[in-house]
Design brief:
The complex is a heterodimer of chains A (about 775) and B (about 290). Chain A is mostly beta strands and about 775 residues long. Chain A folds into three domains: about 1-120, Carboxypeptidase-like, regulatory domain (Immunoglobulin-like); about 125-225, TonB-dependent receptor, plug domain (Ferric Hydroxamate Uptake Protein, Chain A, domain 1); about 225-785, Maltoporin, Chain A, CATH 2.40.170. In chain A, the strands form ten sheets. Chain A has a 22-stranded antiparallel barrel. The chains are: A mainly beta (about 775), B mainly beta (about 290).
Chain lengths: ~775, ~290
């Protein structure tokens, strides 16, 4: 801890050391066709083989000694710009880069130090090219960013067709998913089959699996940072798609050319609606339906060369209604996310950039049940009010300093119920709400120490204060509430705080290879608890409290990075070891109904987890054929004193082997082939080992937690994208996908069928393995004008 | 009501795309545990049935079932003053431990300790017979859309103070061979402490019943005209915890999405099962809407 602080301080104050005359070149990089900011474009000085990349808002700044230089701006898929500059004063240069339409296996030799894979002090991080994702096969033709993320080494899918993911042995709650800076608590629609993100409205996707920079916090395992398109600054554009289960439409355009623009994107599924005609009026299920819809909207306004405003909104709802006339049963479950974020970019000078964000996030889940005179309602949710200041200071070409502050006021409604019978309201307890102040301060520097060594050193301070009003139920030895402790409004229930050091270094071995290592510590003040073996929207988010200590992780990672053939191929080998403290699970014998009229965290038990592994990655970035091959060898274990007799157990998503191949091939200008193949070790399950009878009823006894392994999962998908004849005004394409080409019966779950009668000895128990999706062809038509 | 479960709907959704096949699973071998089924009610002798857990895929014929019964155990029941060793009886070929000594017949308000010495192990447990709390009223009502079928309704006035728990059994005269626990047979007063409220009883059935009226769309209802004896019991909380988790486990055992439910036994010393005291009231009703 101490040596790290020293390095950090040195890096912060090192700028004072040199005193030669320096000037700054700064500006924005944009896409010429749309006026969209280019995130992560490389801007470098050819003579020095040094440079920078544009930030999330397209801004770059380079400060170097006066002189004559050649400035190069490059970005994958765009034409490179080279410009001679005479630097004898601070200059502002905005660049508009043009798409490179010639796609051949020929590629340009680009600056050798430009390559981010080997050169940056960043590891365990992957950026996805959204355009390439669109050419990949997708189940039902529904393109899904989260499912593409699962094809990366170190990222595990939560199950067949599921958009939930697990990173390096961490839980599903340990991923920070950001949409334009706003936290998304539940990124999936019903049962996890579809994610909430619409690829048409997304500009950039970045996944950080380890070595998390200091500007991110609040989660242990990963950051998925998604940036929405800003909206075309040049002309009005409409994109849309019609698929077999949903349709989507995106409209964008300038409000004032090159100054203000908007984008609105919507999607709605209709599988439930399509089923409606088949439910006859006399059917007992009349009135049942399921659909989801969402709306993304963003507006941005360039006030001046120094100020820019962004207003983004997201609103998504899943609506599931179920009716069964037979027993007068009805159920309604609306749930979803709502987000509004307002951001303001301000340039103080050509070295200091500030982004101020004000964000409102709301996630809610509700189940309403009715049967005869009974009504039952279960609801949970999270509301956040969030304010952030993020500074980016670029004092010299050797430093990229970031610092900032974040304040979030959380309102958690972990799980509450109301019930009544006729006019009598049942006492399901007061509605328990947890309020908390969540504060973070951070600073970091990317520092080119010398030709060989570059570091990212950062420190994050976080504080979490659980405040009243709050009611703590004190349970008796049988787990029933005995009495309560009441905290008044504003009273501190519990306060946690901690320092989170973040450190990554790169050591260059030669022109095309480097070694990297990282060490990070993270705190997480929210916890997700689930009764089910799959993640569902019914899972409850619970904040740290007087009962639940914050999750805490330490991760060590090291890697060897090497590029071949002038950066055409990028490869890496990474190893990691991660420990996680204060993990939560429900206690043995806890039931969902225990949560009502009690604190959810009263049914928790606590333990720790650890994971380690090796990840191989080979990526081809240019040419007619591109894509990647990933492989991960990993272990993920947990230990809870009160579970599994205190013995270690593998987590459900412990995967010894996880491999994927992802390819796209441009057969011709109009035809693109996409292919993916995945292989994963089977899920670990707890299955019964014995059985017994009490009062005639048979029940099972379970063995060690997750002792059983299902068969391995593997699957191949193919897609063909055929572009229609392009006119100036109208473009269209057909996307044909085949999911599970060789119709592999992958295990989804196992159950046991009891047939016969135990009293006459004819009972027969048979294990049955259920597979979810066989071969599924699908087609979608996409257009834009 | 607490039997609400999300997953059946997911299953419904998957019906169209999924497919299944039989697989063979090699189970781990584990040690046998003693299963205790012990009951004590006011006014009648206590009885204890001792069996052993059997391998999940073990044969389930009558012979194997009989073999799982433990004979020759030393079973004693004590109310703190009187301690009685239970005798071994053979009923229909099955071993049951009980006694004809009225000194240990159940009495309301007493605490009963159970000790079992069997298979080289000593198991102990404690239960109480709480004061019976009678129902205020019962009635029958046709379910909308059905004629002659409906739930059995009741009105209960729960005494103030948390910690009351209940278990309901019913027996239809001429139809059921014994008192059958209602579907979701236990509830406690966590949600309605001190309230006067109405609720209804889902008719329970024999496990794996093949009776026609247990396998049609009215299987959860009672039929108008039935004569039903309701056995309404008050039980203590550890006893309640057992049945609540036991019934959830039995319900979830066929649900692959639910995490396995751990059954909260009140048997100490490494056994499973329950030693349960019941404070009982009986009511006989003829069901008329």
């Amino acid at each position: 801890m101490k040596p790290l602080l020293v390095v950090f301080l040195i890096s912060l104050f090192a700028f004072q050391a040199s005193a030669q005359k320096k000037y700054t070149i700064s500006g924005y990089v944009k896409d010429k066709a749309t006026g969209e900011n280019s995130v992560g474009a490389s801007v470098y000085i050819k003579e020095l083989l040094k440079g920078t990349t544009s930030n999330t808002y397209g801004f770059y700044s380079i400060t170097i000694e006066e002189g004559e230089y050649t400035l190069v701006v490059s970005y994958i898929g765009f034409k490179e710009i080279e410009q001679k500059v005479v630097l004898n004063k601070n200059i502002r240069l905005n660049y508009e880069i043009e798409a490179d339409v010639i796609e051949t296996d020929e590629f340009k030799v680009i600056g050798e130090r430009e390559d981010q894979n080997t050169n940056e002090a960043v590891m365990s991080t992957v950026e996805l090219d959204v355009e390439k994702v669109k050419a990949l096969p997708a189940i039902f033709g529904e393109i899904d960013i989260l499912k593409t993320i699962q094809l990366l080494p170190g990222v595990q899918s939560a199950g067949e067709g599921n958009s939930g993911f697990y990173v390096r042995g961490g839980g599903p709650d340990q991923n920070l998913i950001l949409l334009d800076g706003a936290t998304i608590y539940n990124a999936s629609h019903l049962f996890g089959f579809f994610s909430v993100f619409n690829a048409d409205a997304i500009k950039d996707v970045k996944l950080i699996k380890g070595g998390m920079p200091a500007e991110y916090g609040g989660r242990l395992s990963s950051v998925l940072d998604i940036t929405m398109n800003d909206g075309d600054m040049k002309k009005v554009k409409v994109d849309g798609g019609i698929g077999i289960i949903s349709s989507r439409l995106t409209v964008q355009g300038p409000i004032k050319k090159d100054t203000a623009s908007f984008i609105v994107s919507a999607r709605r599924t209709y599988i439930g609606d399509l089923a409606q005609p088949f439910i006859s009026d006399s059917s007992k299920f009349k009135g049942s339906n399921y659909y989801f819809y969402y709306l993304n909207a963003k507006f941005n306004y360039i006030i001046s060369d120094k100020d820019r405003l962004f207003l983004s909104g997201y609103f998504g709802r899943d609506v599931f209604t179920f009716r069964n006339a037979d027993d007068g049963f009805g159920m309604d479950t609306p749930w979803g996310n709502s987000i509004v974020s307002l951001r303001w970019n301000h340039l103080f000078n050509d070295k200091l950039f500030l982004n101020t964000s004000v964000i409102f996030t709301k996630y809610q889940f509700e189940v309403g049940l009715e049967q005869d005179q009974f009504e039952f309602k279960l609801f949970s949710g999270i509301t956040d009010w969030n304010a952030k200041l993020d500074f980016n200071y670029l004092p010299s070409i050797l430093h990229n300093v970031k610092f900032g502050a974040n304040y979030i006021f959380h309102k958690f409604v972990p799980s509450n119920a109301s019930a009544k019978s006729g006019d009598v309201d049942f006492n399901t307890g007061d509605i328990i709400i947890n309020y908390a102040n969540d504060i973070a301060l951070y600073a970091s520097d990317d520092w080119d120490i010398n030709e060989k060594l570059k570091i990212h050193a950062g420190l994050r301070y976080s504080l979490f204060q659980h405040i009243g009003p709050f009611k703590r139920y004190n349970n008796d030895e049988f787990g029933h509430p005995k009495d309560t402790t009441v905290y008044d409004k504003g009273e501190t229930v519990k306060l946690y705080q901690g320092l989170e050091p973040r450190f990554t270094m790169r050591y260059t071995l030669n022109d095309n290879s480097s070694l990297k290592a990282s060490y990070t510590q993270n705190y997480q003040y929210i916890h997700l608890a689930s009764f089910a073996s799959v993640s569902l929207p019914t899972d409850v988010w619970v904040p740290s409290s007087d009962k639940v200590k914050p999750q805490f992780s330490t991760q060590y990672a090291a890697g060897y990075f090497r590029n071949f053939k002038n950066n055409k191929f990028e490869t890496s080998v990474e190893v990691y070891y991660k420990t996680m403290e204060n993990q939560v699970e429900y206690s043995d014998g806890a039931l969902p109904e225990d949560n009502a009229g009690n604190n959810v965290d009263n049914s928790f038990t606590f333990g720790k987890g650890w994971s380690y592994g090796l990840e191989l990655f080979l990526k081809k970035k240019y040419g007619k054929v591109n894509g990647w091959i990933g492989y991960a060898l990993s272990w993920a274990e947990k230990n809870f004193e009160e579970l599994n007799n205190g013995n270690n157990f593998y987590t459900r998503y412990d995967r010894r082997h996880d491999a994927s191949i992802v390819l796209t091939y441009d057969i011709s200008k109009r035809l693109t082939l996409g292919a993916t193949w995945v292989y994963a070790t089977g899920n670990a399950l707890t299955l019964p080992v014995s059985r017994y009878v009490v009062q005639g009823q048979i029940v099972n006894e379970y063995g060690e937690r997750n002792w059983f392994r299902m068969d391995a999962f593997h699957r191949m998908d193919l897609s063909l994208t055929l572009k229609g004849k392009e006119t100036k005004k109208f473009k269209s394409s057909w996307n044909f996908s085949i999911y599970n080409v060789y119709n592999r019966k992958n295990p989804y779950f196992i159950y046991f069928a009891n047939e016969g009668d135990p009293s006459n000895g004819s009972l027969d128990v048979q294990a049955k393995q259920v597979s979810l999706f066989g071969i599924i062809p699908s087609v979608a038509w996409n257009f834009s004008f | 009501m607490n039997k609400f479960n999300f997953y059946p709907f997911l299953l419904l959704l998957l019906v169209f795309t999924s497919c299944e096949k039989d697989i063979d699973i090699e189970l781990k071998t584990t040690e046998e545990k003693i299963v205790v089924e012990g009951v004590i009610e006011q006014g009648i002798p206590p009885y204890v049935i001792l069996t052993k857990t059997v391998g999940f895929f073990a044969p389930t014929d009558l012979q194997s079932y009989q073999n799982s019964f433990i004979k020759g155990a030393v079973v004693t029941v004590s109310d703190g003053i009187t301690t009685v060793q239970l005798d071994e009886f053979i009923v229909d070929g099955f071993t049951v431990y009980s006694t004809l000594n009225p000194a240990i017949f159940g009495q309301v308000g007493r605490v009963y300790n159970l000790e079992i010495q069997a298979e080289g192990k000593i198991l102990t447990s404690t239960t109480t017979i709480p004061t019976p709390i009678p129902m205020d009223n019962y009635w029958y009502k046709d379910q909308p859309g059905f004629s002659n079928f409906g739930y059995l309704w009741f009105n209960l006035n729960d005494p103030p103070g948390l910690g009351n728990a209940y278990r309901i059994f019913t027996q239809r005269k001429g139809k059921d061979a014994r008192f059958i626990p209602a579907f979701g047979s236990v509830f406690d007063d966590k949600f309605f402490d001190g309230l006067d409220f109405d609720a209804f009883i889902f008719r329970g059935q024999e496990p794996n019943s093949t009776a026609p009226d247990d396998n049609n769309e009215t299987s959860e209802y009672f039929q108008q005209g039935d004569t039903v004896i309701v056995k309404f019991c008050t039980i203590d909380l550890p006893h309640f915890n057992f049945w609540e988790t036991f019934e959830t486990a039995a319900f979830n055992d066929s649900n692959p999405f639910a995490a396995p439910t751990t059954i909260r036994t009140n048997i100490e010393g490494g056994g499973v099962g329950v030693w349960g005291g019941y404070g009982v009231t009986y009511d006989t009703l003829v069901l008329v809407d």
